[in-house]
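Continuing the series of single-chain predictions for the mutant panel. This is the parent chain; the variants come on the following pages.
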Amino acid sequence: MKKVFLILFSLMFLQVVNVDAISCYNGIIEVDDSNFSCSNINSDIVYFYHNGQDYSKYFSLSENKKRINIVDKTISFDSALSEGVIEIVDGDNKAYVRIKNPAYVEPTTTTTTTSKNKVTFTVTLDSNDGSDVVTKKCEVDDLNETCSVTLPILDNEDFNGWGTGENCKEGASGTIKVNKDITYYACYENKTTSTTTTQKNDNTLYLKSLKLYDESNDNEIEFGTFSIRKFDYSFKVLNEVENIKVDALSDDNINIDVKGNNDLVVGENEIIITLSDGNDNETIYTLVVNRLDVGETITNVNYLSNLVIGGFNINFDKNQFIYTITLDKDINKLELTPIAENNEDIIEVIGNENLENGSSIKINVTNDETNTVYTINIVKDSANNLLIFIAIGLILLLIIVLIVLIIVKKNRNNKIKTPTNNNIEVLKI
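Parent structure:
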């Protein structure tokens, strides 16, 4: 396959982000823009996907393959999304561009309003993964009537509809009828896999709530947005914090074990919260705590608004700074699209070359005063290494067998004696 390099850039923002693997310049592109420039497109046809659906009809490629035109400005993103991520496929290579949704309406704080005898119902959608809660509204003429709301499809292979319980495994999809304000939670059919490689998570055991406190004064510690299906958290505490009190709540029949929350050292500490039910079911929540040195202060964080890694779904959370990815042995570089939350911040990617088992990719988000680091730890698949060891073992075994055969043959040859001439005495009669 030909190696294809696709370059996209934003016409609306000064800040651009370099995507190493496909040399793509990516930013926020308004739908009002009629097109955006690109180069080095080698395929005759470029495909455009959103949430796994073919969106190619909304775009066209110029004859000289140097411009992508938005041919239909009524791109049908779900109205609950403020923007959509378009996956651009050119041959075997992919890039991503984020396009604002013209149908999106910023939700208001009012849950139910009436105007001229009309009633508005609000449907709250909680994706159960730590991301922002989305609201949808529909209007009816009378309280006794129902109205329709279309539920979005989440980009998660375990997603299985929307339900009214946080621990649901299966729920509704498509268009539903509502006659009141209601909250729906994303349902997940299979277990959710954490980015921690040692974690064993069972999809029936969850924390209902989690709070952290400085044990010396009971001041609450901020550690990010808690979600029952978010299993990894990373945060900083001042040097004054030596012990952390963990207030974790789950169902009555679930045992909660907490380790690593006392006698924190300066630097990185790991608090492990293990849930078990006595039936070999286990879920682990991991808290990575960075205890600062004496005199250090917790500065403002330079966040990424999104981090897309081609071919991998990492369930990005801007408050999660450490991720772990398992790669095949022949993958030496990742297709990274980091987007800064603040367009003035500068993004620098370090270590995304010649990836080996144990490699770490650092994504620095910096401005004039502060720096935030997102880390991607690499684990290389060892399955192929086992095949190599087996092949080497078979070759050595074959060599040993040949040597033994040679020795046996030599010994046989030595045992064959050449006949000697005996003195024959002839008797004469």
